Amino acid sequence: MDKKTSFRVNNRTETIYGFLSIGLGSISFAIFLWAVYQSAYNLSGREIFIGVIELVAMMLCFAGLTLGFIGETREDKLKISAHLGIALNIIIGIFHVLVIWHAF
Which UniProt keyword terms apply here (predicted)? Predict the structure, then answer.
């Protein structure tokens, strides 16, 4: 018996949807920070461009949230990454909604 597998409790692996959810949440947060920076130092008057950046970041966040929920439904997989992805995307989504809410 191989030493690497002799101490394993089960053969389940993490779901790829959880990792994709974490990745999309991280990209969404990075774009959010870039949009906030562009808004704070808006010297050229590009408000529409900043709004489009924020909407793209919000769509990525909701796509990550959807992938997290898909990762939750997979049978015989570990769901820790899906839990983290859902939590990250919910927190980032709250920031996006607050920015969009206060912008209008």
Answer: Membrane, Transmembrane, Transmembrane helix
> Reduced to 3 states, what is the DSSP secondary structure of residue 94?
helix
User: What DSSP string runs through 30-68?
Assistant: HHHHHHHHHHHT--S--HHHHHHHHHHHHHHHHHHHHHH
- Region 70-83: mean pLDDT is 88
Which whole-number Å values give the CA distances from 98 to 20, 53, 69, 82, in the listed order?
24, 15, 23, 24
Task: Give the Cα separation of 26 and 61 in Å (integer).
Answer: 9
Whether the CB-CB separation of 67 and 20 falls below 8 Å is answered with yes
**Domain range summary for the chain, segments of one domain joined by +:** 15-101
**Whether 14 contacts 78, CB under 8 Å:** yes
More confident residue, 46 or 11: 46
